[in-house]
Amino acid sequence: KESIKAENIRVLIKTTDYTGYYHNEVTLTSDEEFTIQGKKNKKTYAAGETVTINPDYELLSDGRVKVETASEKGKIQLLSVKRMSGNPKYRGSIEIAKDANGLLIVNELPLEEYLYAVIPSEMPTYYGMEPLKVQAVCARSYAYRHLLANSLNQYGAHVDDSVSYQVYNNISENEDSILAVKDTYGQVIKYDEEVITAYYFSTSCGHTTMPEYVWANGQPIPYLKGKLMATENSKEVSSQESIRLYQDLSKEENFRKFIKDDDVVTYDSEFDWYRWNTTLNIEDVQKNIDEKLSSRYQANPSLVLTMVKPEQGGKEAVFESVPVDSIGKIVDIAVKKREAGGIITELLITGSKNTVVVKTEYNIRLLLAPKNSKIVRKDLSEVNGLSLLPSAFFVIDKTVVDNKLTSITLTGGGYGHGVGMSQNGVKAMADQGKSYETIVSYFYEGTKLGFIYE
User: Fold this and answer.
1) CA distance 349 to 355
2) Which of 67, 62, 68, 69 is nearest to 39 (CA)?
3) Angle of helix 111-122 relative to helix 175-183, nearest 10 degrees?
4) How far is CA 19 from the centre of its chain?
5) Helices within 128-220 (DSSP H only)
6) Are 368 and 285 contacting, i.e. CB atoms less than 8 angstroms apart?
7) Residue 327 has what DSSP assignment?
8) What's the whole-number mean pLDDT along residues 242-259?
9) Are 116 and 173 in contact (CB under 8 A)?
10) Are the C-beta atoms of residues 429 and 233 closer than 8 Å to each other?
11) Residue from 236, 296, 285 nearest 265 by CA
12) How would you classify the pairing of strands 200-201 and 421-422?
């Protein structure tokens, strides 16, 4: 294939630990000679020379500079940013812009080269070539949609480099990730001739869900259906019976049985995050809810409803979106609504001061974060200090002492939002010899692979 100069993508680079967009200063270097160009003047630096740019840097007087290496092969290293692989090195150019809040860094590079450093940041490259190709076409489709949407145009970028879009260059590119991109050059997933938004996540609980049950304004999407990920080898009679039961996991009793059942073989069932449990002390939960509730209300008032009229004379309780800062002592926590695949979409928290309904899986995972509790995974390994529950696919068991709720035990499954493609499911399917094309059409039903460069 001839190399067509594909579109460039502009990536906003967040600070260390992905805490924000604004940098106090930027320190950079390169493995070859590089230039920093302002509006009128340009400076040249030798390979290996280190430059620190703060808001007073002379070439920034017009508000923006561009850093480029002498050849197209050179990379610019940001010494003021730390990622999992150390100080990241970037292909393409780096632009630094100044405004009242600090410095913004935008990395502009060809879409294909951007993917080199998305794939290893989103999936372990030792998973093998087929899973990496699946990840490549998904990541390319996802990035292409954001290119068209110009999602971060107020910052002069299309995407940022964090989980808000796709993680980019947290783990640097390697031979395998480059090969997976080259082998699928320009390839994307299409539905009705349009490039899809290829949602993906780490591990399923054995059943996926739908976008309308995950995101506040999520719309039904024909190629993203919740499905039981039963493997072809789980065809024994007993298993068939359970599978029939497990088609509708929005029913509490079905989901409870499913999440505590180890017999159904699904593509994800061999992975650690397939099943997990954690016990949360009610004081910890209360403290966390009081800390986070008002900011979650401010982020989207329609997702935190407070009871303004209790249930009376057969009339249901009335809940409204009003500011709330504390629920008081927690009296009860219960699932109010469960949807496809068993995902919790509404949680009812009864407190001594206020009773609230919290909506969306993200809010639920945040408010019940196991910050001070250990999570025990399927292989009995333990994970501590998570600031978000692994998923919203869980059941709640309560411990009550002297009529007081003292702790809750959550038994759950999966890691991530549960929409679209499970990355560990991909690995299991590839291990069974399935091709990347087959895997893509399994997760995104009714789609075809196509190309974005003519």
Assistant:
1) 6
2) 62
3) 130
4) 15
5) 129-149, 175-183
6) yes
7) -
8) 82
9) yes
10) no
11) 236
12) parallel
